[in-house]
Known about the structure:
- This protein is mainly alpha-helical and 131 residues long.
- Helix content is 79%, strand content 0%.
- The chain has five helices and no strands.
- The longest helix is centred in the middle third of the chain and has 31 residues, at 45-75.
- The mean pLDDT is 85.
Amino acid sequence: YGLLDALTDITGLPTKGPKFEQWKPALYAGVFVPPLIFSLGSSDIFYQALDYGGAFGVSTLFLVFPPIMVWKQRYRDENELTVAPMVPFGKIPLASLWKAAATLILEQGANKLGVFDFFEGVWNQYTTNSS
């Protein structure tokens, strides 16, 4: 429905009523045809999109956001904690979570860009030439 709503906003059509019903086939074609064209051009493009979305979206959602939320809740000026923190030692574990998240996201990005494969090839070439 997101793309359908975007198309109705762009064209200025209502989302209900007779005018919407009149333009419904064209709107649904506008939703269906672009992904169809992309999939005909490259059959694995959606798998790649899911791979990137999963690698970086999930890492951001579950590794970056929770420490930020805890940090904001604990250390904003006007708020006093009413209960003891569940993760002890204050700022050190939160900073460690950020470091772990950043390391994982950078590692995933380097893997997607082929950096590790490049250095593996260079290393293999170096070790075979020096033998």
